[in-house]
Amino acid sequence: MSAHPYTASGARRSIVAFLTGKAASAGLTFAALVLLARLLEPAEYGLYVAIFAFVEIFYLYTGFGLSTFAQKYITELRVQGRIAALHRALWWSCVARQLLSVLFALGVFLAFDHLAEAFDLKLDADLLLLFSVLLVFEAAMRFFTEVFPALLLQGHTQFVFLVRSALRMVAYGAIAWDGDAATLYGIVAIDLAATVAACLYGLVALAFYSRGERAAAASGPLRGGRRAMLSVCFQFYISQVIGQIYGNNVLRILVSKFSGLIQAAYYGFAQALSDMLRNYLPGYLLLGVIRPMFVARYAASGSRQVLDEMFNFVVKMNYFTLFPLLIFFVYAGEPFLDLISHGKYGGAYPIMLVMILVVSMQCVHTAFAMINMSTGSPNISLAATLAALSGLPVALLGGHWYGGQGVVCGALVSEVLWCAVCWYGLKRSGAPIAIDFRGFGKLLGTTLALVAGVFVIPHATPLAAYATGFAAMALYALVLHWLRPFSDNERDWVNRVAPGRLGRLFVW
């Protein structure tokens, strides 16, 4: 029976593997986004955005709680060293996830005429077949990227992303280099081929892991057996399904349906950038490391202090790196968007600003969701999700009056309500989160003071806007070095898990 890896040294090894792969895939992903925005006309790009919004909705709706099973119970089985049970759970969950994907993708193919009208997806027969196959392999790839982090195997997770990003980037670049006209069918075919290659790597990597770590030790049921585990997972799944009613994927489709494909393209471009921005924040960037460590520490000790520490650390790290980017976008966001989109999507600037605020609330949402999952409290998540539905009318009315910017304001209302109700639910359950308001106040106060400078500092040219934005970011880092928003324990945690001597550079 092998020792579980959920220690500071295990986290450090996972972070090294993670950063090595993520650094490469980050540049490739951004370059692919820029190329895609240039290769497709705004109307086609808007349809491409709608296609992948449907892909994400499909993945969440057809999982029936298996994602939560991977994130929570795979980790708990590994912590307890119950290796035989762990590997049985790995393979039956992967097989079940794939069977569900095939079944529902077939349903999408057969019933697409009704779905097309509802989601405003106009696909010909060839593109529909390609799209249906894409649904199956996208679901498989995404499930692998949830299973590997639960095992603290971030190297495999990042290589899955790297394979997909590299193949897409090479193919997009070849089209741009040859000067050929890109078609939506060709772009989706490239995405499918890259996703299939990433899935093959994920399958082989999981098979080698299972073969190398399998133990002969028998293991009994965990917490009443598989039925009890799946019951908890299914309750979280219900919250995820309801959450999709007001989620970004549905909102993107609503923009396309009610505001036209051009507005959908603006919204989709800003959404792609904000998603990339969110996914490369430390708390999200290292979510595959933080979440299993979080679940493992709480499973081992049952201490509420663990939840307080992880909440404050995750959210503060995200805010610490998000707020300077918000400052930069306030000063230089419009010329920056105009530059990277070759003049096509400069109009996405006001949408992008609100989306950054949405990301700030999603940081809190993610931390609360980890707490609910660790403690097995799906009822709190469900109550918060039902309350967040109140943002949908705001999105619908806002979209009618202000297009994409009005829709994203509805998303902001939903996130604020979700976090507020979740905080209240935890407090009422007798397990309130001890929020470090002093540390958060330092981060927020510094940001607001620097953002206010946009009203008095002239930046008439793009070059002046860039210079002012970068100067404000540098001042942000300097001021917070003096204010020290992070506690001694948080700095110590960074020093222990950061590779080499990188932790010593964290002086805030």
Automatic annotation (TrEMBL):
The chain crosses the membrane at residues 15-39, 45-69, 90-112, 127-152, 159-177, 183-208, 281-299, 311-332, 347-368, 380-399, 405-426, 438-457, 463-483. Pfam families: Polysacc_synt. It is found in: Cell membrane. InterPro entries: Poly_Biosynth_Transport, Polysacc_synth. Its main location: membrane. It comes from the Bacteria. The keyword Cell membrane applies. It is a multi-pass membrane protein. The keyword rRNA processing does not apply. Keywords: Cell membrane, Membrane, Transmembrane, Transmembrane helix. Belongs to the polysaccharide synthase family. This is Polysaccharide biosynthesis protein. It comes from Chitiniphilus shinanonensis.
